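Ticket #4471: structure output looks truncated?

Reporter: J.K.
Steps to reproduce: submitted the chain below (368 residues) through the standard prediction queue, then opened the result file.
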Amino acid sequence: MAKYIYQHPNWTAFSWSEIAINGVFGEVRNLQGKLAGQMSTLGFTIKEEAKLSTLSIDVVKSSEIEGEKLNYEQVRSSIARRLGMDIAGVISSDRNIEGVVEMMLDATQNYLNPLTRDRLCGWHAALFPSGFSGMYKIEVGRYRTGEMQIVSGAMGKEKIHYEAIEAKKVEHEMDKLLDWINNERKIDPVLKAAIAHFWFVIIHPFDDGNGRIARAITDFLLTNAENGAERFYSMSGQILIERNKYYEVLKKVQHSNGDITAWLDWFFCCLRNALLETELTLKRILKKSDFWNEYEKTLLNKRQRLMLNKLFDGFDGKMKTSKWAKIAKCSTDTALRDIKDLIEKGILQQEEGGGRSTNYELVDYWGK
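Returned output as attached by the reporter:
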C-alpha cells in the first residue's frame, strides 16, 4: 500500500502548482470582493438577517455531513439568542445544538483570538457534552490517546480508508499546526484556510468530531481572511453538496508525497461555488425585506407572520394546512382561515397540480 503523506520526512512542507490553482483562486478572491461590496450597500437589518441565515445553514450542514440532522429552527434561535438578535418565534434548543453553535460562533466571532489547544479542546467538549458519540464513550476535550482508523463495512469485512498519525505523535504535530496557524503571515489567508483544513484532517487529533472541527477551523481562517465577523456564505453547506468529491480528493491526496495541488483546486472550486450560491441566498433575503416593507401596514396575526417568515427562509417540503397547524400550534380550521385570508390578500396561492392534497406557496409578485 502507498505511503501516507505523513510518513514522508518533513511532510508538512506542502507543495502545489501555482499555475493549476491561480485561475480558480483569482475567481474566489474576486467573488469575495464582489460579495463584500454588495453587502456594504445593504441596511443593518438585511445584513443581520443574512448573517443569521448563513451561520444557521453552516451549523446544520456541517453536522449533516457527519450524518447528524439538527433542527434548523432550534439552531437559528440559539444563534439569534447568543448574538442578541430580536427575531420572532424563538424556541429553546437541545444541548447538542447549543454545543455546535458555541463552537461555530467562537470560531467566527472571536476570529482575532489565537487558536490554541485549550480552545480546540473546548470546541470538542462542546460537541460531545455527554461524553458519548452515539452509544460509544469517547475521550472528550483532549487529544486522542488511542490509534485512529477510518473504516466502513460490516464486522469482519471492514475496509480501512485511512490510518491516522500515531497517538504519541499527535500533540507534537498539533503544536506545529497551531503555531503555523497563529504565526504564518506570508501566505494568503484563504490559501492558509485550505492548507489548515487538510493538515488538521491528516492529523485527526480527536476521538470523534474531527470533520466538524476542521470546518470550524476553516471558518475561523476565512473570517480572518475577510477581517470581519460577518459571514455571508456557507462553506459547510457547499461541502455537503460536494461530499463525495470531498472524500475522493482527500483519499487521493492523503497518499501524495507532499503535493496538495488536487486538494487546493477542489477547495477553491468548492469555495467559489459557495460564494455563487450566496448570491441566490441574498436575493431571497432581499425579497423578504421588500415584502415586509410593502406589507408593513397589512393586518396580519402572529401565526401568519411566523409562517410567512418560514416560507421566505426556505421552508423544507410542501406547505399544507396540517403543517401550518402543527408549526403555528393551532387547529387545522384556524390554519385554513389564516391561509385563506392570505390568499385573499394576494400573498399566498395554491400550487398548481397539487394532486390529492392542497399545497400553498408565496405569490411571486417580484416576477410580475
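Triage note (M.O.): checked the attachment and the full C-alpha cell line is present. The first strand starts at residue 132 and ends at 133.
Status: closed, working as intended.
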